[in-house]
Known about the structure:
- The chain has one helix at about 5-45.
- By secondary structure, the chain is mostly helical.
Amino acid sequence: MPSDLEEMAHGLRLAAVAVVSAVITAVAVIGVGQVWVARTAQSSSATAPVEQAVLVRTAG
C-alpha cells in the first residue's frame, strides 16, 4: 500500500503532465490558427481588400 507521500508525489506528477499537455496543445492550436489567418489574409488580399475584423467581448 503506497504511503501518503508517494500518493501526493504521484498526484503532482499527474498535474505536471496535465499542465505540460495543456501548454503544448495551446501552442499548437494558436500556431495553426495564426498560419490559417495568414493564409486567409494572403489569399483574400489577392482578390479583394481585407476588411477589418470586429472583436466582440462576450464576457465580463
